[in-house]
Specification:
This protein has 116 residues and is mainly beta. It has one domain: Galactose-binding domain-like (Jelly Rolls, Sandwich), CATH 2.60.120. Helices cover 0% and strands 45% of the residues. The two termini are 20 Å apart. 24% of the residues are buried.
């Protein structure tokens, strides 16, 4: 985990893994912070990603936008995707979900921000 602070906000970098043949990442403890970005690994099988959230790390729910649409993003190898923290403020945990199984283990970095 990397923590940066500039007097107005702090940013954390948290790693999460999608296992080989898997579609869901390990849980990321975001602790109510806004998710502001995702760094993708240098190789990927999937080109889309959605999100799930959990209060307790055991019961997971798909994330939907205010218009009722499932929150999906386009991903690619070595992409850094900037996200709106207003869209992705979750409670305690999130996980990343791809629609197709990854061909190998993939490590992603989730960037969160807390404003002071």
């Amino acid at each position: 985990m990397t923590l940066r602070f500039n007097g107005k906000y702090s940013t954390r970098s948290l790693d999460t893994t999608i296992a080989s043949s898997g579609t869901q990442s390990t849980a990321v403890a975001v602790d109510g912070e806004g998710v502001v970005g995702i760094l993708c690994p240098s190789a990927l099988t999937s080109s889309m990603m959605s999100f799930q959230f959990s209060e307790d790390g055991e019961n997971w729910y798909d994330a939907y936008g205010t218009g009722g649409e499932k929150l999906n993003i386009t991903i690619g190898a070595s992409y850094y995707i900037a996200l709106s923290p207003a869209d992705l403020v979750f409670s305690n945990f999130i996980r990343l979900v791809t629609p197709s199984a990854e061909a190998a283990e993939r490590v992603f970095y989730v960037y969160t921000r807390t404003y002071t």
